[in-house]
Design goal:
Blueprint (H helix, E strand, L loop, with lengths): L5 H46 L7 E3 L3 E5 L2 E4 L2 E5 L2 E2 L10 H19 L5 E5 L11 E7 L2 E2 H7 L4 E2 L11
Parallel strand pairs: 4-7
Antiparallel strand pairs: 1-6, 2-3, 3-4, 5-9, 6-7, 7-8
Length: 171
């Protein structure tokens, strides 16, 4: 089309490129939003599956019991990490003085819970992960019908385990 104005052809090409650029940005934005939504959906799906787990009957265990830390109990020769619980690290594992102090308080509280005279202690073993990364058994620990993890979290001496240790040090 030799009769077209070259300036009009350049303008049409510029508009077409700008339109394509806008559409490409919109597609990337839509893709990003979909990825975020799908990852959020997967997170809530996993959380709802955890919440929907049936409560298993606990296995009654005989003492003596001793807290090793705020989230770990020795029951005879077995060391049991309380499932889904994150307590401050003891001794050299503590990142600050406050964490070390909280760790001692948490250990003392857990020890009082599991070693009080006449308490009934039950374990509900984790059906998926039997042991943690250092070989401790994983189980919910129930003392006189109360979940130890709930008691420790409500007392502010532990937090829900989120895949890594919490920061217990002031900022």
């Amino acid at each position: 089309t030799s009769d077209e104005d070259p300036e009009a052809a350049r303008e049409a090409r510029r508009r077409s490129e700008a339109w394509h650029h806008r559409m490409q940005r919109r597609m990337w934005t839509i893709a990003l939003v979909l990825m975020v939504l799908l990852s959020g959906l997967r997170f809530w799906q996993v959380r709802s599956q955890e919440a929907a787990r049936p409560v298993l009957s606990g296995e009654a265990v005989a003492g003596p019991f001793e807290a090793v830390s705020g989230d770990t109990v020795r029951m005879g020769s077995e060391i049991v990490r309380v499932s889904n619980l994150d307590a401050p690290a003891m001794g050299g594992g503590a990142k600050c003085e406050r964490e070390a102090e909280l760790a001692e308080v948490a250990k003392t509280r857990l020890d009082r819970l599991v070693s009080a005279p006449g308490v009934k202690v039950e374990l509900i073993r984790d059906p998926v992960r039997r042991t943690d990364d250092v070989g401790r058994s994983l189980a919910r620990v129930i003392v006189d019908g109360e979940d130890v993890a709930v008691v420790m979290i409500e007392a502010g001496l532990a937090r829900l385990w989120r895949g890594r240790s919490s920061n217990w040090c002031p900022v």
